Amino acid sequence: MIRKAISVDVQAIHSLINLAAIQGKVLPRSKNEIKEIIDSFFVWVEDGKVIGCCSLEIYSKKLAEVRSLIVLPRYQNKGIGTKLLKACLDRAKHENVYELLAVTERDHLFETLGFQKCLNNQWPMFIRI
Description:
- The chain is of the alpha+beta class.
- 31% of the residues lie in helices and 33% in strands.
- It has a single domain (2-128), classed as Aminopeptidase.
- A seven-stranded mixed sheet has the order 1-2-3-4-5-7-6.
- The chain is globular.
- The protein starts with a strand and ends with a strand.
């Protein structure tokens, strides 16, 4: 089940991010940073445990960034990442954000939702909404 993150999710989100950061998949983030921006996160909860997260950090009406898209390995390839990403896209549309930025190596997932590479077919990827 997907839902907006709340303060009790900070530790679980931090653990997910640390695990992925060790593997070089995302940038590390401190608990304090996560706590300060907890309202930017969506989480996927299964059996009472946070098993995935994604944040939408809105910089202005022109630009927001999708960050920290993570799903625990044993839950991957079940559409959870796509649903978390769609939640971010929906929020961006609701907030009337013009363009989303994503720096990712998961090209296919983002391309299926309309993101395109911009700089000589390199990252970052953008989508206008």
